[in-house]
Amino acid sequence: MTSIRNLLRMRVVRTSARTLFVCIGMYSNTLLAMQFIDLRMYEVYFRQAFDTTRRANMALYGEGGWNSRGYNRHSDCVNILQLWQPTQSSLAMLKGFNEDSLESQALAIIDAYDDGVRGHWCVRGSFHNLVSAAFATRIAIRHDFMLGLYLPVHHAQLQDISWNNLTRDINAQDMRVREELTDNFLENVHNFDPTLNLCSGWQRTGVGDLTLLMEWQHDFPQPKPVLKIVQVNTRLGMSFPTGLRHDNDLLFALPFGNDGATGLIFGGCLNLNFMHRMWAGVDVELTHLFDTVSTRRIKVDPDQTELLLLAKACVHNDWGMIQRFNLFLTADPVLYGLSASFYYQFLKHGRTDIIIGSNDFDSTIANTAESLKEWVCHTAIFRATYDFAYHMADETRVHPSLSLFARIPFKARRAAVWNAAGVMLNVAF
């Protein structure tokens, strides 16, 4: 009887051309269904008060993350590598290919039924060294308009990857799965697809997406006992795909931005000042991502799990819209130049649809991937700012301020999140 090992030896001899093709297409532009690494310095909880009587302000930001975790489609907290499915099926990995393919031949040799445990793996891992820094500058133009430029840099690392074989040894089907597939699983996967790395961690450092933003901000004084100022902010801008893209040959190799997609950003903020001591407001921001064409791993059978996809294809990505809604409350001043703020953010990324650029695979099946569905995240943000201008004369040219902030995601769906804390140094001149 032919074994899977003999089949794979034959494949090495007969598919050198295919291996070359796979190596050429190993970089994917897939946006993971997660809170991707993106320090957006123009968001309301980062934005410093801009004194339009001054020409410009510049800011440096830095943050570190910890306690990475995932939330599945039921909003249950899970390990980040169990975000889309609780287990990964090595039997389903071989489904959906042509009858004469080595994957289908291997499945026929195994001749075993997937009962939800047989051929399954429990996969775990964790993010480490989640560090981000950013530079931002805003320049006043005229008539309350200002132009901003924002560029982040990120570092992330995936470690502690473990694959736990759940296959039992009760009957003949279990034994065949163990002998032919799971006992030498990583070697078998490597022989099916040499570019897919399931066991090695990674660390990546690179810039994020560059953002150019035009804002208009104006204060409308109110002659009322309690309400003193109504502040309106509107903005329109573009994000450019300068960020490091997702590598789908590594587990959860996050994109540092919108993963190759150019974004059109438009938003607005209404901020109310009460008694010159309290600010309350709402901020809404929408980002439209323009379609892209890329090579990505796809599902070729509805039963397949998303960490074990052997098929690649050139696809057209129709990205979902990114929606951000913020509610906030600020006490300013608390003491001398100190202010304190609390923000609640609701973040939603709409469903992404893909169209495969060939007739080799079915787009309908590919779109059943859990990673393409919408994901949401709820976050609490705390910020304390000290404005050193409180101790300076009005004619002083440079006005610095220092902020400390913390972001705590507390609920999500289909998202990988982590806690973060950082510091911001802002200088107006």
SS summary, helix count: 6
Oligomer: single chain
Main beta-sheet annotation: 12 strands, antiparallel, barrel
Distance between the termini: 79 Å
What is the string of helix and strand elements?
HHEEEHEEHHEEEEEEEEEEHEEE
Structural class of the helix and strand makeup? mainly beta
**CATH homologous superfamily label:** monomeric porin ompg
| CATH architecture field | Beta Barrel
Record field, number of beta strands: 18
CATH topology: Porin
Structure characterization notes:
There is one protein chain. With 429 residues, the protein is mainly beta. The protein has one domain (4-428): Porin. The chain is 12% helix and 48% strand. It has 6 helices and 18 strands. It has helices spanning 4-14, 16-24, 102-110, 172-182, 185-192, 363-366, and strands spanning 56-71, 77-78, 88-89, 120-140, 145-165, 202-207, 210-221, 227-240, 263-274, 278-289, 292-298, 311-318, 322-335, 338-349, 353-356, 375-387, 399-413, 415-428. The strands form 2 sheets. It has a 12-stranded antiparallel barrel. Strands 11-12-15 form a 3-stranded antiparallel beta sheet, with no helix packed on it. A hairpin with a 5-residue loop joins strand 7 (210-221) and strand 8 (227-240). Helix 1 packs antiparallel against helix 3. The longest helix has 11 residues, at 4-14.
